[in-house]
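User: I'm putting together a small comparison set for a docking exercise, and I want a reference complex before I start. The sequence is below, and the ligand is thiamine diphosphate. Could you produce the 3D structure with the ligand included, as structure tokens?
Assistant: Of course. I'll restate your input first, then give the structure tokens for the complex.
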Amino acid sequence: MSEAVKPHLSSAHLLGLLRQMVRIRRFEAKCAELYQAEKIRGFLHLYDGEEAVAVGVEGQLRPEDSIVSTYREHGHALVRGLSMAAVMAEMLGKREGCSRGRGGSMHIFDVAARFYGGNAIVGGGLPLAVGLALATRMQRGPGISACFFGDGAVAEGEFHESMNLAALWGLPVLFVCENNLYAMGTALDRAQACTDLRGRAESYGMPALTVDGMNVVAVEAGAARAIAAIRSGGGPFFLECRTYRFRAHSMFDAQLYRERSEVEAWRARCPIRLLSGWLQDSGMAHAGQIAAIEAAVDSEIAEATAAAEAGEWEPVGDLARDVYAGGDRQ
Amino acid sequence: MTADGQITYREALREALREALSADDRVFLMGEDVGRYGGCYAVSKGLLAEFGPERIRDTPLSESAFVGAGIGAAIAGMRPVVEVMTVNFSLLALDQIVNNAATLRHMSGGQVGVPVVIRMATGAGRQLAAQHSHSLEAWYAHVPGLKVLAPATIPDARFMLGAALRDPDPVILFEHVMLYNASGPVPDGAGCEPIDRAVVRRAGRDVSLIAYGGTLAKALEAAEALAGDGIAAEVVDLRSLRPLDEATLLESVRRTRRAVVVDEGWRSGSLAAEISARLMEGAFWQLDAPVARVCAAEVPIPYARHLEQAALPQPAAVVAAAKAAMGAR
Ligand SMILES: Cc1ncc(C[n+]2csc(CCOP(=O)(O)OP(=O)(O)O)c2C)c(N)n1
Ligand SMILES: [Mg+2]
């Protein structure tokens, strides 16, 4: 942990971070639109406001590392490099979707990218991350596993059991807590007897760090430090990212549990606005470069959406494929 | 309640909660987001303002702890109503329900009763995919010591909770997600059947369609279609999944001599399997056809709408099964 990890503050690097955040933000805006049009159904949980966490953390991961996420995972999937068209096709329930239309928004998978899914059971992904790390250890592989989860998950038994097991066996797991202060309508201080979540890690003897999750550079620096510690054999690490979701928990939520003014105050710290502001104020980038990024992202989204919409419906006769190994055999 | 004297299933449940909370100060409601958020399916909306945070308790995401705490409070004389968001999440509390709630009375030689009520949503139809859509009622109905109810109508949504709270043993109440917006006339409670009785919802002489919870409406729709083809289907609503009201089922099937069980659970090891076994044991010599089953396909419920619908029991399949039974002499 004492190892100093030098942040890359070149303009090209920062523009890359900005681009990833803009991709997530605009992709999800398109998803919300398709939800209104009833093309995306079920639950849709947007990451609006939290983009710096996925971008800052995943930029520090390598292809041999594994990721486990939650139902709020579109951002994690896109940054990991999943095809935007395949993710969008999944949202639409098409057979070209990355989970063949079986999972939808909450269950984006891509094993080639070692992206082991959106998991819709709060806390349900954490034991999987421990197991992925265990396998890596037993196979003497190079990777680590990273799991993303919310502040709400910290109350679940599976969180504590996973933290203990990972610490006990010294496994290479990065626990990334996306602390957005609410679990659905339940504020952190109404769910946790002790709201300093780092204390949980300490009680398992696990190193921990809290970073400003609205500042992608701070997330990146924290993740770099945590991951360096894990890779050097230090066992698991707990990274708390303090963030905020700007929109409803899902598409059905009257938000009776928080004040508009609170949301507005956090919006003023929007990670995308923060970074593009710095870039321009410091003269590292000009408005034209940022507009070019936005335009490129918009056309990527338009192409991905068109490709997804052109996808096909899985024939009903194939309903029961993939319940067991062997594809379409039952 | 809407202006035209109609009430939704959701509102009927809320009225039941309100009545129970008003009548008995041992009653309290707890679960995730039941207070400020108003309940994930808005059942408890407004109750926090009315009854306060002592009795409408938001819990952290800790199903095992708060369901277990409900069991503990019940042991000590309270009458908790515990809400679990969906049956899929109740699996995190399965240990408390099966190893504590269901066993304590017997295991303690009759000393410890557990008058807890546990409510949860169940079922598919909203494109929520495999971790939010399952129908695991049969798992709970398997367990001695539990009582399991499936209100399928507005009157049952309105009155089963009160009866469940009066029961000295643990009762699990399953609310099918597709029913929350269903509406009907405000029920008055008169003529409400005891909770352990199955009820004939539509009389008929040719075939008995046996359903519960989310499949009742589908069975009724099938019965209507069959009537158009001159087949008089009787529709029986189980209401109680444990204990099963075998007498009512056998009485119906002995008259109609044919049965189709409609169940949103998977066919293998299903409630439908249990019911067909009981019909075989009790009415074998009166049957004119093998008992038929229309169940969910043996697949984790998929997201895409057409696949989800294909996985679920549908009225057309019930009609086909009934006709096959009619033709099978
Ligand atoms: C075991 C379980 N219980 C309840 C739920 C319903 N639920 C879905 S998301 C959520 C809130 C989770 O909050 P948090 O972990 O903070 O993540 P966030 O949504 O804020 O990203 C709840 C209660 C669930 N999916 N799984
Ligand atoms: Mg949260």
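The domain at 3-307 of chain A is CATH 3.40.50.970 (Rossmann fold). The two ends of chain A are 50 Å apart (CA to CA).
User: Thanks, that's exactly what I needed.
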